[in-house]
Each structure stands twice: as structure tokens, then as C-alpha cells.
Amino acid sequence: DVTFLTDGSEEVRALTELVTPEAEHVLDWFHITMRLTVLGQYARGVAHHDEAEGARLLEALDRIKWLLWHGNQHRAGKEIAFFEDDVDGLELDYTNLGKFVRSAHEFAVYIASNAGSLINYGERFRAGERISSCLAESTVNAVISKRLAKRQQMQWTKRGAHLLLQTERGRSMARSGQCSSAGIPGSPTATRSTHQLPQPKTPQILMLSPETQTSPPTRHIESNASP
Fold this sequence. Notes:
The protein is mainly α. It has helices at 10-19, 29-47, 51-69, 73-88, 97-113, 121-126, 134-148, 158-175, 203-206; strands at residues 3-6, 24-27.
């Protein structure tokens, strides 16, 4: 069985369905928590203008995170809708209020459009299975950021970095024998023309394999919240 951890974008999902339609798709917990962190920062900004309202919004975000972690999509969806309405109804002299409202709406759409890829992350985490690509993404970002820095003897340009990544991807796919070991039918062989780089047909290119997981949320609510 093949499992894809993705950020939930339509382009990536369409590509994975083209490669292996029967594969399992899981919305990366790392990307969920990233969006919740941004909303939490806005809520803390609200607390500077209205402490009680800010605390209430932060508590709501904790509930949403807890429900998503335990795979309770129904209650999470309701809490997200309540949260969106609360943010939309704020009347404060807060500079980032417009951005907060927009981010809350985008988060609601993001979770709703990826409902089929939500799982019980807590159960999967306790079983020792991967739920996040945070290590792989942070490593790639760190390497690229360092190489693009100006204070280096050999600095990458944006075009140079793009071409290098494309070349390394082609080499990696050629070494892997074009999915022959993965048992994927209809995959191209490694003996392609040297005038054309191999296309990303293997799930290995899309799969991320971090060795660490993000920590589970520590908030606890009523026992009947569990799915």
C-alpha cells in the first residue's frame, strides 16, 4: 500500500491520483498546525485590544486542534464554523483584523476541501506511523536558504537552484529503475533518451519520510469528544 502525505493542494493531489489512484491520501499534520499557529498569532494580537476575546479565540483554536488530532471531523467542522463567525464579528481597532478574517475563512475552506484526507492522527502517531513531513521540508528549506544566501563564495541563483533540483530528480529516478522495484504497472523504464529528463512517475518522489513527528496537542476536553 502507498500513502501520500501532502499539503492538500489540488495540483499535488491530482498528480498522486494519476500515479497510483488506489493510494491513501493523508493531509500532512505539519501543514494543519502551521495554519493553526498563524491563527493563534492573530488571536494573541486581538488579546492586546480585548483580553477576554483573545483568550476565548485561543481556547477555541485549542479545541479545534484537539478534535482534528483525534479525527473528530464532525465536531471540528462545527468548531471551525463557530470560530470563523466569531472572528468575522470582531469590532476592534486591530491592524491585522482583515488578515485574521481572511485567514480564518481560508482555514475553514482548507479543512473542508481536504475532509477526505483527514485521519485520526493521534491513533496513527501512537502506532508509530508517520503523520508529518516537517523534518524533510525543514531540511530542504534550510539547504536552499543557505545556498541562496548572498554571503557565500558559491551562491545559487533562483534559476540555477531550479535546474539543479530538476537534474538531481532525474538522476534519482534513473537510479531507482523507474519504479520497477515498486511494482507500479505501466511505468517508464530507466533507458529513456538522454535528451529528455524523466517525468515524476514514482511515488518515492512525492513521499516524504521524516524520522520525527510533531508533538500531539496537550489540550483535553470532554470524553465524548473522541470519535
